Structure prediction request, 944 residues.
Amino acid sequence: MQSSADRQDRYEYPAHWEADVVLRDGGTARIRPITIDDADRLVSFYEQVSDESKYYRFFAPYPRLSAKDVHRFTHHDFVDRVGLAATIGGEFIATVRYDRIGADGLPASAPSDEAEVAFLVQDAQQGRGVASALLEHIAAVARERGIRRFAAEVLPANTKMIKVFTDAGYTQKRSFEDGVVRLEFDLEPTDRSLAVQRAREQRAEARSVRRLLAPGSVAVIGVGRAPGGVGRSVLDNIRDGGYGGLLHAVNQAFPEDCKEIDGVPAHRSVRDIDGPVDLAVVAVPADHVPAVVAECGEHGVQGLVVLSAGYAESGPEGRERQRALVRHARAYGMRLIGPNAFGIINTAPDVRLNASLAPEMPRPGRIGMFAQSGAIGIALLSRLHRRGGGVTGVTGVSTFVSAGNRADVSGNDVLQYWYDDPETDVALMYLESIGNPRKFTRLARRTAAAKPLVVVQGVGSAPQGHAVRATRLPHATVSALLRQAGVLRVDTITELVDTGLLLARQPLPAGPRVTILGNSESLGVLAYDRCLAEGLRPSRPLDLTTGATAADFHRALAAALADETCDAVVVTAIPAIGEGSPGDAELAQALRSAAAAVPGKPVLVVHVELGGLAEALSAAASTAPQAVGKTSGTPATEGAAPPFRPAERLPAEEAASARAIPAYPAAERAVRALAEAVKYGQWRREAAEPGKVPEYDDIDEKGAARLIGGLLARGEGLTISAAETCELLGKYGIPVRQALPAPTADAAAEAARTLGYPVALKATAPHLRHRADLGGVRLDLADEEQLRRSYAELTELFGAPEELRPVVQGMAPRGVDTVVRAVIDPAAGAVLSFGLAGAASQLLGDMAHRLIPVTDREATSLVRAIRTAPLLFGWRGSTPVDTPALEELLLRVSRLVDDHPEVVAVTLEPVVVAPHGVGVLGATVRLAPPPARDDLGPRTMPAY
Prediction:
């Protein structure tokens, strides 16, 4: 029998098992396979473990490892015996191993599918979630090697380890014998295990960002003695912003006698600082950064913001420098924002951190902002600042992150933080690229269920320096998937801010019905037209005339809000001239007091000259969006609206609770923001009842798996034959109408006799396939004479049968030709697409998309999402087709792809949807080996 060392020589080192992970407290560690070169590390690690932990591991006093132990624990074959280590700074902090066993409990090889698993964690590292992360990774490795079940024996007193197993969410059995608890659990992911894993991921990543945004102490590295320069500017911004923690200035060029810079303690090295440093802001040349990272890591710094440029944005050499930077930071358990970052801001009163190049601390508020580019970050902050005194009033920023090259901390991490951040009510993001669309859409869906998420998404290629997975999906498809996840996708920074301000200041509309009123008929008509263009349902504008007083505005707005047929109100106002005309403050108070009486409906103002009106409208105590739902239109006082009282006579408690009303300088901007709020409100209501993935009794999942396994045994990736496609789809209840080859006219006649008349004759050559417009299809051939004549016509027009590849197919009932596709995209995951066949989808791109698995509600919305959907529902008097049967087909295709990741592409074209039933006339399926790791795999940080 071969030794483990011999077997280790036979198997290549599984580099794809290496991964960086975020731990429970927000720090990081690296997980990798243990090899024969780790003997010294293993011994050093074991020496730092307490006697109690050793006893729990070996069930007896075990003060040191013997040479035989070290050999056994470092020599693995990476199949039947595997060991993984969690490391920080290159040193072990925890280990886990499994040994495959047979039914008798003795060492075994495949096909045995059970293994014993055991952990050991340094005492100083316990409580950080290291064992939970290792369990996820060793379970994924075991599944890859054909192991389906783990067994673990634990002493009853080792409650921490028992909790690791029981909290993981796997299906398990527990027994007690001879003073030992034996746990057995299946490794197949369950809904509970995935929920546990993702909850841990959210908590860990959120804490890692929180450590960066709310540090107790900050060191700015690269501070010059003279004013100016990046480092000195950031130091001044932190100090002037009112940061309440400990602040240090660091520069190795400081003289020995330099003790402070403008009152801030000065040091030549981070090592010279007494006490911990939570955050280091790095502003030194790129070639000096590695030494700074090493100093920070050795001093225990928790996170870095690297402002330095000269990385991937500068070309291939810089890209390698950036990879080295990330690896270096992660080796010490540090998270990194940047490089080439603009900085971070936290306006919380107990933090007040402006570790950025923004010279002024933004106004505190409830809006979280994320940008990758420094230039975009400046534009966002300045846009909010300019509108802050007028349109936004007290609405400002909670946190701001400009991630630069986004080498480590990304928009996904910040989303995890914002999800349960009580200081953030609305999230605004400018994304020049999306590194992991599959994860982003998952996180966005969860975040959007709690608070609005508004995104501007870059259209072009990713900027230099951004690590982005290649995607084959068009930009429009990715945008559609983001909207499906509840993301409000807008096109410009202006729209980003406009929409964010509305969502931060007003409740969500219960529907699309809009009342328009004001003292400008032309502005009212313009707002009306824009509402129609945005798909809203406006009523005819109510013209109060230019002589309207503040009281007139108050009565009209109160009446509109009290109307059950109104979901939102757009008020148009122009400056009035003459005696009795309301001033800005008076008009603002009239609108605010009327809106306060019915707080469940949003109000927007279009005012051609913002001036003091916008300032007055903006005064509010809270900016949190309110709950979605139909609200009562009854004012606070029964009957008529409460009388308007000027601001000076409004009780203080009412003034404090009055809502801020956003004002816009143009009708189109106000209506566009309102339209986005309406879409988001509708999504929230639908997300509350997401539907379900139905079960079908006639699906043969195991039979399909056997068929796929046999087909893949022939090659790495292949498009299977027509017969094999029909067999595979048939196992999921998707019949494909049989098409028989017709290489000659006699063969065509024989095929027609087999199928029965009437039949269709089709050319399937690539340049003619699905191109009925070119004349390569003859339909409703009632007898052999018509068939032979059509065969002759096709060969005369398009060439020999060998070029045409003609087939004969039985006629399907008349209906609407559609196309159904499913594809596994390397970045976005599994996507189901639907549209009408022909020009609608090919020329106009009229396709709708949903992420797989698709629920019954999503299938219903998918059918109705295309612009040409009316053709399915009796447009212009035509007969409506069987859309329930079409929805069932979509659900069956979704199940096929979701159940079998080896199915990487499915195309059904055409699918004829008749008044009764559907007919699949053509189908292709492509198979490929499934990826070693997928979205069901263990938590990992992006690879570098």
In short: Confidence is low (pLDDT under 50) at residues 1-9, 389-394, 620-658. The first strand starts at residue 19 and ends at 22. The two ends are 39 Å apart (CA to CA).
